[in-house]
Amino acid sequence: MNALSPYLQRVQAAHAVLGIPADYLSRCTQPLCEEPPELVATETDYYGRPQQLTPAAFAAWSSMKRAARADGVEVFLISAFRSVQYQTDLIARKLEKGLSLSQILAVNAAPGFSEHHTGRALDLGTSGCEALVESFENTKAFQWLNLEAGKYGFTLSYPRNNPWGIDYEPWHWCFEQHQYDIEQP
Known about the structure:
Elements: H1 6-18, H2 24-27, E1 40-41, E2 52-53, H3 55-70, E3 76-79, H4 84-96, H5 101-105, E4 121-125, H6 140-148, E5 154-156, E6 172-175
């Protein structure tokens, strides 16, 4: 990516606002995640908020959700696309609550590095389990995802001891189009 790209400039500006050191872009081991050129509206999330995904990720998510339902497994959307600004605001709110930047960056990627920017990442939930908690790994939904999500092009992004140093997130799955032949609904 060109160092003068508007996207990179937005990321650098977001980092400056949050107090993320200027050399973070060169030190971060996570890949830079650009926002996609096209997003489509999905169903609303668990909280009733509108969500967006890339067209291919939405088609794969819809197929996967139908398959889970057919197998008696409930899985629902908690979060999908997040812009750089949304990620910046999310981290700023946590800083305002008194969390340190290092604490926050262990659970939230810095602006520019969140897979949610790609429009291909999903945070998922199921009934009987709080949202975005490690105990999601003990649910029927997580067991089903471990066995079946790959068939739809989704992979668990942040397993235990992942190379990026992000805390384990059993609810966070990302779509890789090359792993899935899109079925038309």
